[in-house]
Amino acid sequence: MNRSTELFQRDADAVSDVMKLRFYPMVAKAAGGALIRDADGREYLDFSAGWGVANTGYGHPRIVNAVCKEMNRLSFSPTISVLNEESIELAERLREMTPGDFEKAVWYGHSGSDANEFLYKMIPAATGRSRIVSFVGSYHGQTMGSYSMSGHPAQGKFTGGGNVTRIPYPYCYRCPFERDRETCGLFCLKYVEDFVFASQVSPAQVGALIAEAVQCDGGDVVPPDGYLQGLERMCRRYGILFILDEVKIGFGRTGKMFGFENWGVTPDAVVMAKPMGSGQPISAVTGRKELMDAGVGMHMFTTAGNPVACAASLATIDVIEEEKLAENAEIQGEYLLGRLRELQAGCPVIGDVRGKGLVIGIELVENPETKKPASELAALVVYRCYELGLLLFDSGISANVIELTPPLIITKQQCDRAVEVLRQAIEDAMTGRIIREDLGDFAGWG
Predict the structure, then answer these.
(1) Is there a domain that residue 445 lies in?
(2) Rounded to 5 degrees, what are φ and ψ at 270?
(3) pLDDT by 10s per residue, the chain, length 446
(4) Which residues belong to the signal peptide in this entry (predicted)?
(5) CA distance 236 to 246
(6) Which terminal residue of the chain, N or C, has fewer Cβ atoms less than 10 Å from its own Cβ?
(7) How far is CA 99 from CA 287, 294, 329, in A?
(8) The dihedral of CA 6, 386, 48, 220: what is its sign?
(9) Of the candidates 322, 339, 354, which is a domain's last residue?
(10) Distance CA 403, CA 46 (A)
(11) Domain count of the chain?
């Protein structure tokens, strides 16, 4: 029995299934840059960045040094009651990084879930309006409030709050209105005012609209130009808070520090988490003071905003800015999209390739005409990529989108390697060299 198999057996016995989403029998032992070694010493190229967490790569020396230094100096203080300089400095930095000439404040948590939970609680308190608008396919978290705002089918096993109205995201490859993206005139935006606000919920009841600038877990869907700008104008017209969830695509991934900057909009609040601490558990919401200060002690966690996590986040921001990782994400993302579209041209099961910077989705279909989602094929491809030394996951409301979110330090040569592995994995899955029974319990979302 190898070491990985032994550890998986121990995990099955000791760790709750409730926190498991497994795509292959990977046991990480060590990592550096964009490479991970498993418990048996095998090396993998990571094109997931741990669900978009490791934007700066693994073990960046500047971040390791910042964490070690802070641990030696001040390993902990409860920010809710005892100040630490790092949390104040980071809050000031986050305020400067987000647009808007209004007064802002910062809230701290541990994950995207508790950050979006903050909004679910505070939007009605701050606005006096009980309703929230979110999107079909959205994924805002696993706590009940963030769960309620989400619209992903993987989260349909529980009943969330009834104060959320979900509207279609502009998923042009699968337009729910069966319109053509070139001639529709952003019909999905017009639909919100002409139908949703006219017949489902009055805009006077809506405290906020929350969107992802790129909808990741919904299938790495990039909105058409003009859509986010139109949403912002609509929110301003009705006095609705315009909130953007940057939990997965923030901190350089799209070629900008925040994804929404690609479309020049100014949100009233920005949600941040996964990559902001380079693996240290930290999240934040930066927003208008009237929202952020709508209550005292209403959503607080003892270890949130701790000095070690804040030091890691400050170092992460420095690395992204000074090493121009957002710029590299744009360059490598354009190159990778080009290579993948070349692959698509000779591979009919690839229905669509889309992305912004280094968040890229490859949508697999059974038939390019019907566009029937090829969910099982996606699971097979992900598993076969693992066997060939490439780590990635699938996403999408039908679990048929191969998601590429590598560390932002990725090189052209590593992009080439990933494309060749993907080519081989798709061929192997299509020719039956890997079948559903080979996956065992590792079907991911399926």
Answers:
(1) no
(2) -125, 130
(3) 799 889 989 999 999 998 999 999 999 999 999 999 999 999 999 999 999 999 999 999 999 999 999 999 999 999 999 999 999 999 999 999 999 999 999 999 999 999 999 999 999 999 999 999 999 999 999 888 899 999 888 766 666 778 999 999 999 999 999 999 999 999 999 999 999 999 999 999 999 999 999 999 999 999 999 999 999 999 999 999 999 999 999 999 999 999 999 999 999 999 999 999 999 999 999 999 999 999 999 999 999 999 999 999 999 999 999 999 999 999 999 999 999 999 999 999 999 999 999 999 999 999 999 999 999 999 999 999 999 999 999 999 999 999 999 999 999 999 999 999 999 999 999 999 988 887 887 877 76
(4) none
(5) 20
(6) N
(7) 10, 21, 21
(8) negative
(9) 322
(10) 12
(11) 2
Which residue type does 53 have? Answer: V
**Integer angstrom CA distances of residue 149 from 117, 159, 197:** 9, 11, 18
Residues 106 and 229 in one domain: yes
CA atoms within 13 A on the CB side of 25: 17
Indicate if 92 and 70 belong to the same structural domain.
yes
- Domain span at residue 415? 3-60+324-439
Residue 358: which of 254, 259, 220, 273 has the closest Cα? 254
Residue 444 falls inside a structural domain: no
Distances (CA, A) of 135 to 254, 261, 332: 20, 20, 29
Q: How far apart are CA 146 and CA 125, in angstroms?
A: 16
Angle value at C-alpha 391, between 389 and 392, nearest 5 degrees:
145
Q: Would you give the distance in Å from CA 334 to the centre of its chain? A: 19
Which residues are known to be catalytic? 139
- Amino acid at site 76: F
Q: Which of 322, 346, 376 is the last residue of a domain?
A: 322
Q: Which residues pair with 353 in a beta bridge?
A: 362
d(CA 314, CA 218): 30
Of 212, 174, 188, 176, give the one whose Cα is nearest residue 359: 212
Strand (E) or helix (H) holding 150: none
Q: Residues 233-240: contacts with CB within 8 Å, 24+ apart?
A: 234/189, 234/192, 234/193, 235/209, 238/197, 238/203, 238/204, 238/206, 239/203, 240/133, 240/203, 240/206, 240/207, 240/208, 240/209
Query: Within 178-274, where are the H helices?
Result: 187-191, 227-238
